[in-house]
Each structure stands twice: as structure tokens, then as C-alpha cells.
Amino acid sequence: MPPDPLPPPGDNPDERLARLARRVERERRARLEAESLLEEKSRALFTANRNLAQLAASLETRVAERTLEANDARERAVALAERDSLTGIANRVRFTDRLGALIEQARQSGEGFALLLLDLDRFKETNDALGHEAGDTLLRCVARRLVRLPGAWCVARLGGDEFAAIVPATEDGIEAQVQALQARLRKPLRFQGQRLEVSASIGVALFPQDATDSRDLQRFADIALFRAKVLRDCHARYEAAMGREIEVRRELGSELARALRIGEVVPWFQPIVDGTSLRPNGVEALARWHHPQRGLVSPGDFLAIAEERRLMGELFARILRAACPVAKRWLAEGVIQFLSVNVSPSQFRSGNLVQDLAALLAELDFPAECLVVEITEEILMLDLDGARRQLQDIAALGVRIALDDFGVGYSNIGYLRHLPFHKLKLDRSLIADLGKDPKVRVMLSAIVDLARALDLGIVAEGVEDPHQALLLAHLGCRDLQGYLFGRPMPEAELDAFFRHGASPRRAAV
Asked: From which residue to which does any coiled coil extend (predicted)?
């Protein structure tokens, strides 16, 4: 502010004081205004700083929260990547990593271990009959039982109904371990009032005896599992010779479908005779495969392959198409009264059997009342109500039904009262001890009396000597079948017996 001009001459002191006072007042007001403005700006700056600090703190908190969430998500992702979502045990990825790590540790320590690969028996049938919820329950139960395996280093579900376990083991001790595991797995469980049977086939390979790297160890255990699955509910230890056997089976599997198409698989016939007259009463058609290079392939081999490759329906149709015209001729000649054929459990459970039977009978113009289909009790175990409906539909076609292999396994006689059976086929294991063990005769007599009371026919299979035949006829068995009367044979050889009375036993191949 510029200084006041000098007072004009003659200016008195009071005026000068007044002007000074006015100047001081102006300066004071200016100072107050400046201080007020500065205070206002300071408050605004303080508020801004405080807001920035709060924002920074909030951002820091959110960053920390997001970091925790990201870590949790990462941990969950790792868990999902390494754990089976249904059972909670390790999955294939985790198992593969763990197996590789254990091999490295074992190389350092010199300690051996066993790799067990497990495949549940009849799991697909359980799933199909009772639904996926029952199948999931079964898988979780198996996982829990495997986790309790003493000393297991790793237990995993590899996918579907296949599991794996790595256990410390020596070559001498693994047999007992596997048997104990199978016994643990066999304990049945309940699902919605249904009894679920549990069993598994197990393949075993040892480190370092069988293989010294992860890939070969898994491959060899898988080969052993393949061998075990042929018999079901058993285990197999890898042997070097298995590799060629598996290769042969795979070759046969690829050739079987072709063999069915071109007619290499044909029916052979085994006579079933009247227990009193010993004259032929019927024939059972059995599939036989004469391979152009391998010769006659064992039925046990190619039937198992047909099951694995889901060819049983095609095989059944092939045998029926070939057997019915032959049997129809024998029926017309009056030399037999019926043709008997086997139905596999997988074919029965496919749900197509009734429709296929009706179509084949119409196509072949074969009398339904002269056809007997043989089923095993295994068909009834998973879904009795479903089996009852299907058997009733088969009986409604006019086809007769025989319960095969009766007297072994569970042999639930309640089935006989509730299901439309026409015949019982006594298992050959019962016949084998007839005449040797008095209790067998008593038991067979009771079975025959039961069948007679329920108006069921009896067929005794596995008859091999005349003494057995006489005892069975005396007990009341109407139909007898076995090597005493003839092995399964081609059409032409059985024709010779019917025409000339030649012994089927001599004509058999």
C-alpha cells in the first residue's frame, strides 16, 4: 500500500492521527481477511488430505481382500485340479504326480512299493438298473474303504469306476494285502432299501521288480487288471507273459465283430435227453468260433470278449438265426421238443431282449413255445422288479424261461415263487458229488420236490457217468444233459445221431 501523501502545510496533528488510525484499520482488516482466507484454504486442504488418507486406507483394505480372494481361488483351483469332485480323493493328475515323486524317493531309499489298479465289477449294471445316484453312492463308498487301506501312500479315482492305490509292499506280502482289500470291498451296502453288492478286480505291479518307471509300471498294472477282469472279483499280479496274451485278446476282439458278420461264429448243439427213456428231448445251442488261422477259439475267451465289446446282442441274434432253422427241422421230424439258448446278463439288462426276441421269432417263423431262454441268477440280483417285468414280457411271447446254474451262488428260492420260470437247471457242481456224498442226494431230492410243487421242470447238467443218470432219473429229474450223452457238436454230427442212432459221445469234437 503506498504511503499517505505528505500533509499539506498547515495540517494539524489530529488530522494526521485520524489518517494514521484509518490506515492501521485498513491494514488490520486486510490482515484479518488474509488470515480468514488462509484458514479456509487450510481447512479445505486438511479435509482433502483426510479424505485421501481414508481412500488410501480403503484401497489398501480392498487390495488385501482381493489378494486373499485370489489366494483362496487359487487354492480352490489347485484343489479342483488335484481332487476328484465326487469322492474327494486324489484324481488322475494328482496320482500321476504322486507316483512320479514316490518312484524318485524309492530309488533313493531302495524301498519297493506296489501299484494297485482297481475296476469295479458290474458297476454299469448297477448304474443302469438303479440310477446314477446309486452309482455315485457306490463310488464314494469304495473311496472311503480305500482311504482306510493301512499304510497307503496314495489313493485316487482315475475316472469312471477305476481307482488306484500305492502301498508299501514286498513281493512276499502283497498277496495278503490285496486279499484283505478285496474282503473289505466285498461288504455290501444299502441304498434306498436295496442291497448293493461291491466287488472289484485288481491288477498289481511292483516297483522295482516289474518296472522302474512310472509309464511301464502303470501299463503293467493295467495288463494285470485286464487279466483279473476276465474272471471278475479277483486279482492278478503282472507277469511278462501277460503282454502277449493281452495282445492276442485285443486281436480277437477286433476280429470278433467281423466273424459275426461273415458267419464264422456258429451254433453247436448239445443234446438234452429224457431221464427215463434216454431219448433226445431237446438241444441247447452254444456258440462256437472256428477261426481260420487260430482254429477253434475257446468259448470262455471269445464270450468274455463279446461282453467287453458289447457284442452279446449281436452274438445272440446270430446264434438264434442259425440255430432256429435247424431246430425247426428237427421239431418237424419229431426228434426234439425244444431248443434252448443262453441269454447273457448284459444283454438282458440292455432292455432290448423282449423286442429282439419277438422280432427274431417272427422273422424265423419259429414256434415260441418250443424256445427256452436260460438266464442266470446274476440277472435278478440288481433290479428284481425290472427283471420281473421283463421276464413276464418274455413269458407273454410264449417263450419258456429256465433259471440256469441253480444251486450255486445265492440261489434265492423266493425267485421261484415270484418269477415266471418254467424250468430249473441244476448246476454241474451239485451233480459232481452225487453218489459220493449222501447229503447231496438229500439236497437234490428236496430241490426236485420243490420244483414239482411249483410245477417247474428240472434239467440236470454235467451228467458224466451212468450211475449219476440213474440216481437223477430215480429222483425225478426229467431232463439230463452232459458228456455222458454228448458234448456240444456241429449240426451234421448231431444229425447223424438222430438219423442213425450213433453215439453223440463218439461223434463229438
From this structure: 17-76
Please give the Cα distance from 504 to 480 (Å, whole number).
14
Locate 405 and state its grid cell.
446254474
Question: Using DSSP, how many helices (H) and how many strands (E) does the chain show?
Answer: 19, 16
Q: What 3-state DSSP class applies to 167?
A: strand
Extents of the domains making up the chain: 92-240, 248-507
The amino acid at residue 198 is: V
Q: Which CATH fold topology does 248-507 show?
A: TIM Barrel (3.20.20)
**3, pLDDT greater than 50:** yes
- Rounded CA-CA distance 407/424 in Å is 9
Q: Which pLDDT score, from 0 to 100, does residue 151 have? A: 80
- 365 Ramachandran zone, left/alpha/beta (phi>0; psi -120 to 50): left
Domain 92-240 adopts which CATH fold?
Alpha-Beta Plaits (3.30.70)
Cα distances (Å, whole numbers) of residue 178 to 115, 146, 171:
11, 11, 12
Is the pTM for the entire model greater than 0.90? no
- Which segments of 334-462 does DSSP mark as H helices, in order? 345-349, 353-364, 378-381, 384-396, 414-418, 428-432, 438-453
Contact yes or no for 181/198 (Cβ under 8 A): no
Cell 456258440 belongs to 287
Lookup result for grid cell 483279473:
228
| Euclidean distance between CA atoms 237 and 177, whole angstroms | 12
- Interhelix angle 242-262/299-308, rounded to 10 degrees, is 80
For the record, the C-alpha cell of 461 comes out as: 447238467
Give yes or no for a contact between 186 and 199, defined as CB atoms under 8 angstroms apart: yes
Residue 368 DSSP code: G
Residues 485 and 280: their CA atoms lie apart, in Å, by 9
List Cβ neighbours of 279 (8 Å cut-off, separation of 6 or more): 273
Model confidence over 29-57: pLDDT tens digits? 877 777 777 778 777 777 877 777 777 77
Looking at mean pLDDT, say which of 379-383, 392-396, 428-432, 505-509 comes out highest. Answer: 392-396
Specify which residues 374 forms β-bridges with.
342, 402
* CB distance 369 to 398 below 8 Å: yes
Element (H, E) at 203: strand 200-207
C-alpha neighbours within 13 Å on the C-beta side of residue 329: 10
Segment holding 457, helix H or strand E: strand 457-461
Same fold, 92-240 and 248-507: no
